[in-house]
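Researcher: Re-running this chain for the archive, since the previous output was lost when a drive failed. Same request as before.
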Amino acid sequence: MAFQFRFDSILALRCRERDEAGREVGKANEAIRRVDEQIRDLQRQRDEIRRLAAGMFQNHGDGNRESPNSHGVSIDRALQQGRYDLQLQAEQIGLRSTKETLLKELQRRRDVLVNAEAEVKRLERLRETQKSEYRYLELQREQAESDDLTTARLIIDRRNRNRSRT
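Model: Regenerated structure tokens:
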């Protein structure tokens, strides 16, 4: 009779739950990566706007700063760029808030994964313990059977010897 772990179905279920928890951690990491990428993109756009705005007001080689309007710089355009920069900044703040929420969710999912992994390991240890116990009991049973056979043979041999003497 082969060893049958009576919690095999529970172990299989816990393994599936652990694997699903691992996938969920991966999804959370991917979401955080995408948000980080969006934050970097917004920062690049803000840097570009600032670079363009600074270019509108650059020195013209003589060390004196010219008034913006003397070279056709549009105040409306500068204000528009400033408003756009503020809009991008607000989006970054929103994304950072989203990232904080995602980081909390990632930690929650990691905790679920750790607990699921611990449960799987507990069941695997239980299976190994029961399997070892089963093997030990099987060996004892086989040894008892072997001892019984040996004893029976000795008894039969003694009877045969006693009969042959008589």
